[in-house]
Amino acid sequence: MQMVHDEVLISKARNGDEKAFNHLVNLWHNRIYNFAFKYFADHDMAMEITQSTFIAVYKNLKKLEQVDRFRSWLYRIASNKCHEEDRRNKRRWTVSLFKSSGKDEEDTTPWGKFEKDNNRFANPDQQYQKNELAQMLQRALKELSEEQRIVVIMKEYEGLKFREIADALNISENTAKSRLYYGLNALRKILQKWNINKETIHYES
Question: Which residues of 25-58 are buried (b: 16+ CB within 10 A; e: fewer)?
């Protein structure tokens, strides 16, 4: 039902309906921001990538031939923007352990999603440890190769199907699966080296 709704908005936006385009941006803005933040681990960079992505969407929406492939097309643009920015900077990121990734972002790990805390008055020490662990996971992601990192983010954080990842990155589904497999294995080794394991992370079965 959501996809049908999106397709109606996309069709209207392609025909010059500014209101429909703005609605489309509102629907996807947080998703693209979170994707870019996971990639760069930097709020300002993520905002810049998000803005440039939707500028490109606005300019090229009429070129999208298959409306039902909008999601993979959108992530293709966002990933290309990330690649371009990464090559432009050619510098290693540094991430503060105390930097917040945003209150609306849900943290995940190679072993599953963090267990949601239903207690609104969470223990401050537990919350601090959770935030610190989330930042360690963010740093670990940055240690992966660019090819592996972007597939891990798309699959594990954004929930894209392998078909969509392959379409977005212009690779085969088998290549996407291979990069995910090796990326997650590399991520586990990095976390194990830092003494972070399954027992350290609370996750949902």
Answer: beebeebbbbbbbbbbbbeebbeebbebbbeebe
Compute the distance between CA of residue 129 and CA of residue 84 in angstroms, rounded to an integer.
34
User: Are the beta carbons of 202 and 112 closer than 8 angstroms?
Assistant: no
| pTM of the model as a whole | 0.70
Per-residue confidence (pLDDT) for residue 200, from 0 to 100: 54
- The residues, any chain, with a CB within 8 Å of residue 62's CB and separated by 6 or more, are 14
How much is the mean pLDDT over the chain? 78
- Ranges 98-102, 127-131, 160-164: which has the least confidence: 98-102
In angstroms, the CA 43 to CA 95 distance is 11
pLDDT-based confidence at residue 172 (cuts at 50, 70, 90):
very high
The secondary element (H helix, E strand) that includes residue 30 is helix 18-40
109: which residues sit within 8 A by CB, 6+ positions away?
137, 201, 203
Q: Which helix (H) or strand (E) covers residue 113, if one does?
A: strand 112-113
Highest average pLDDT, of 4-8, 26-30, 113-117, comes from 26-30
**187/89 Cα distance (integer angstroms):** 24
Residue 202 structure tokens: 């609370």
